[in-house]
Amino acid sequence: MNNFKLEALLNDFLSPQLINDYCPNGLQVEGKAEITKVITGVTACQALIDRAIAEHADAILVHHGFFWKGEPAEIRGMKYRRIKALIENGINLYAYHLPLDVHAEVGNNVQLAQRLGLDIVGGLEMGNPRSIAIYGELDTPLTGEEFAARIAMALQREPLHIGDNAPALIKKVGWCTGGGQDYIELAVQQGCDAFISGEVSERTTHIARELGIHYFAAGHHATERYGVKALGEWLAKEHGFAVEFIDINNPV
């Protein structure tokens, strides 16, 4: 498939034009015109680019790409080396950030819910049909320790659990993958017993303790591993691409 046609296909599926994001979504670095093999991964780091080169990929599809708002505009140093490697090897780079977080089928939030046994109810941002943070319910209430164990098993990573002054059992849960820790107060307002994000800030511990909610920091990378993987699987199943997901280890 032509590289611009693939961008149009992904844009049609993910609808990035409906979301105000911190980076450009879509084709960020142009490569060869025809694409058959795609490497997917969480972040367009040098290690992922090197693997794509070794695998003779035509394109890389990631959640975290380049050109974030507020970063230096100059292409030098680490950014130069990454972009140079892509251009020299004719590899297209596609990146979808918030559109991939909120997508109802392959989104990071939906994929996390599936792995944790959460039934999605709605968005934490009332009135926003594309709420970045969402909430749902467990079929069977769990203690904080039981839910922490479920998260650890699903993500292969021990979460940080703040449970001081929190309910004895967890039924209603809010979550936002990645750096969504500041949605915790919305979760409290919506009556959630627990809130999950990837990253944690120093202030988050105090908020959880003082507002009486279970809080779980499950890892930015770990909570956002599955959206881009699911998107790649969709490309392979529905459009015949050869797709390989490569998980570059990241403990954060």
UniProtKB/TrEMBL annotation:
Keyword set, alphabetical order: Metal-binding
Cellular component GO terms, alphabetical: cytoplasm
One MF annotation (Gene Ontology) recorded for this entry: metal ion binding
InterPro entries: DUF34/NIF3 (IPR002678), DUF34/NIF3_sf (IPR036069)
Binding site for a divalent metal cation 1: 63, 101, 220, 224
Any one Pfam family match given in the protein's UniProt record, by short name: DUF34_NIF3
Domain of life: Bacteria
Classification via SUPFAM superfamilies: NIF3 (NGG1p interacting factor 3)-like (SSF102705)
Residues that bind a divalent metal cation 2: 64
Cited NCBIfam families: YbgI_SA1388 (TIGR00486)
Family the entry assigns: Belongs to the GTP cyclohydrolase I type 2/NIF3 family.
PANTHER family in alphabetical order: GTP CYCLOHYDROLASE 1 TYPE 2 HOMOLOG (PTHR13799:SF14), NGG1 INTERACTING FACTOR 3 (PTHR13799)
Entry protein name: GTP cyclohydrolase 1 type 2 homolog
Lineage: Bacteria, Pseudomonadati, Pseudomonadota, Gammaproteobacteria, Vibrionales
